[in-house]
Amino acid sequence: IRIYDMAMNNTWGYLGTGYGALYIVELAVFVALPALLYAMGTRERRLGFIQSASILAIAGIILNRFIICLVAFNWQLPSDERYFPSLMEIGISIFVVTLIITAYRIICTLMPVLHEHPEYRETH
Questions:
Q1: Which residues touch 107 (CB under 8 Å, ≥6 apart)?
Q2: By C-alpha distance, which of 89, 109, 111 is closest to 101?
Q3: In the prediction, which pLDDT does 79 show?
Q4: What is the three-class DSSP state of 114?
Q5: Phi/psi of residue 97, each to 5°?
Q6: CA–CA distance, 29 with 45 (Å, rounded to integer)
């Protein structure tokens, strides 16, 4: 959809800028590569490919949010007026994500979330 939008608005010239290079990296590494890894991992039944694709996809979502929130809304401002989060904001964001992951792991460890039920073993 985003490439279609670029084609319809004829904004291909932006790809030559620094932000355009970041966009190309985002599409190649965090969209196309995970799609390829998911397809290969599913076809060849290799869990490592699928896990790597998932990590890249999540990193791509984080990078996309970073680009949209911090870069795209402020690209026209002079560099001294652009917003960039302080170390405290970055630390709090990392803490919240770490807290969510830790809570998920505790719940999965202490509760039978990912365990196979003995009565339905043959249906899986």
A1: 113
A2: 109
A3: 72
A4: coil
A5: -65, -40
A6: 22
Among 56, 85, 55, 82, CA closest to 71: 82
Query: DSSP assignment, residue 69?
Result: I
Q: Look up residue 27 and give its amino acid.
A: L
To 10 degrees, what angle do helices 18-27 and 47-66 make?
150
Q: What's the pLDDT tens digit per position in 56-112? A: 999 999 888 887 777 666 667 777 777 777 899 889 989 999 999 999 999 988 887
Q: Look at residues 15, 33, 35 and name the one whose alpha carbon lies nearest to residue 23.
A: 15
Average pLDDT of the chain to the nearest whole number: 86
Over residues 21-67, the pLDDT tens digits come to 888 999 999 999 999 999 999 999 899 999 999 999 999 998 888 87
